[in-house]
Amino acid sequence: ATVHVWLTGQHDTLLSLTADSPRLQTFLAEARSLNVPPSPDPVAFAEAVQNAVVKELSAWSDPVDGVIVQGDTASAYGASLGARQVGFRVAHVEAGVRSGDSTSPWPEEGFRVMIDRVSRWRFAPTEWCHGNLEAEGLGLDTVVTGNTGIDDLMADDIRPVDLGTFRQVLITLHRRETLAKLPDIADGLNWLAEQRPEAGVPL
After folding, report:
1. Nearest alpha carbon to residue 75 among 110, 114, 47, 101
2. Is 99 exposed, middle or buried (CB count within 10 Å of its CB: 0-12, 13-18, 19+)?
3. First and final CA of the chain: distance in angstroms?
4. In which element (H, E) is residue 123 found?
């Protein structure tokens, strides 16, 4: 099957981080930009993405099996609504991620739920995410695929440096719902550092 990649433009600065990956550079070289202006308002940005996707897909002449959405939540939400608006089936990568609080992060948590509800196929990164979808009656047509970020590192053969007895624990804090919990997370990392002084904790 032929895959066409579209970028919304929400996080263009992150693309510079792929410069050391020839595989990703080759992949992104064929990507098209929807040229949606970045916005600090996720609702306004999602609406702009939806309109851009509707415009692109409405002019598409080739058969389309489906539209895969992944990325920041506003982009994925807008793209999923745009695809459904013109009658195309949606596949959601990173499905089932939930904070359990409809108000935090707002409006991303609502976006996550809606994307999964309009999707024909859902690809969950973990069994926990799959369980969330099952609890919402969306367990069918859901596949646990693993974490795409980790898969990407493994595909580029990026592995921890051998530091002998020194160990590293990589902590990622990229979701908005972690912001209010940063003091508690910092306390937990301090405790970890005290319990395991031989371990480094890069963020």
Report:
1. 47
2. middle
3. 38
4. strand 121-124
Q: pLDDT by residue (tens digit) across 44-67?
A: 999 999 999 999 999 988 888 999
Range 13-17 average pLDDT: 68
Residues 93-109 have pLDDT tens digits of 999 999 888 888 889 99
> How many other CB atoms are there within 10 angstroms of residue 172's CB atom?
9
Burial class from Cβ neighbours inside 10 Å (0-12, 13-18, 19+) for residue 153 reads middle
Specify the pTM.
0.79
What is the spatial distance between Cα 150 and Cα 90, in angstroms, rounded to a whole number? 23
18-36 burial by CB neighbour count: b if 16+ within 10 A, else e? eeebeebeeeeeeeeebeb
